[in-house]
Amino acid sequence: MKIFIDSANIAEIEKYHSWGICQGVTTNPTICLKDGVRGGAEGVKKRILEIAELIDPYPVSVEVTTDEVEDQIAQGKELSQWAENIAVKITISTRKGKPLLPVIYELVKGGVTVNVTAMTTFNQAILAARAIKSGRERSSEKTAKTNFISIFAGRISEEHGVEHARDVLANVRNWLDFHEYEGIEVIVGSIRSRENVEYWAQSGAHVLTIPPRVLSDCLVSARTKETVDQFLTDARKAMEEL
Ligand code: E4P
Questions:
Q1: pTM
Q2: What is the CA(26)–ligand 1 centre distance, in A?
Q3: Ligand 1 contact via 155 beta carbon (within 6 Å)
Q4: Tens digits of per-residue pLDDT, 158-171?
Q5: Where would a tag sit more exposed on the chain, N or C end, judged by fewer CB atoms within 10 A?
């Protein structure tokens, strides 16, 4: 299972990358805003390029910023040119619920790596996977990279509970495996706590994308600190007796 960092904060990404626990980065407009990206489209490009270079060859996801089908295709193609390791994030539908499967299909067919995002149901996820598979089959790019489908488990659980979110993740993974889909990975998105990490890590999803705050929380344990303290204290005593 891979760990992605759900952040646009360079210092945090650099830290976890240098620790060997970052195999990718996911961003979205909300994250960019929160992590201090300013300067409009140029500011976003600058930050994403910084991240792309830092984690290369791992992927960094960047989201399109328009709700129109044709504009999304054009923008998706442009974003994918920024760097080799860009995955273009497309929401499964527009804010009014219009499906964006044609965008997904067109981009993948054109050789763009996508991350289909903001999904909260099994049905959305398998249809996104189907559009990606068809795009890959018709693509002239013979070296198509891994595409992603992001299920927002946190948002699902706010409405239906953590167990239901886990079921959606597990069912999608089983469906992909059963039908022998290749080159598509399931990302667990909108993780809110270390309990979420522990629970959804067992869902069979390929990737957990974790915000830095949650990741740092995952590493803290009062009992571990106490245990290390005991070992070091006893080591000193043992040394003194030698
Ligand atoms: C994943 O790619 C998303 O960036 C992220 O997990 C969004 O989750 P949230 O908006 O529910 O926090």
A1: 0.96
A2: 8
A3: yes
A4: 999 999 999 999 99
A5: C
CA atoms of 34 and 201, how far apart (whole Å): 26
Residue 189 Cα to ligand 1 midpoint, Å, equals 5
User: Which tens digit of pLDDT belongs to each residue from 25-41?
Assistant: 999 999 999 999 999 99
Compute the distance from residue 230 Cα to the ligand 1 centre, in Å: 39
List the domains of the chain with CATH numbers.
2-241 (3.20.20.70)
- pLDDT, tens digit, for every residue of 83-127? 999 999 999 999 999 999 999 999 999 999 999 999 999 999 999
DSSP letters, 104-162, are HHHHHHTT--EEEEEE-SHHHHHHHHHHHHHHHHH-S-TT---EEEEEEHHHHHHHH-H
Ligand 1 touching residue 91 (CB < 6 A): no
The number of the ligand 1 atom at minimal distance from the alpha carbon of 6 is: 4
As a whole number of angstroms, the distance between CA 92 and CA 196 comes to: 23
pLDDT band at residue 141 using 50, 70 and 90 as cut-offs: confident
Q: Chain-wide mean pLDDT for the chain?
A: 96
Residues 148 and 154 sit within 8 Å (Cβ to Cβ): no
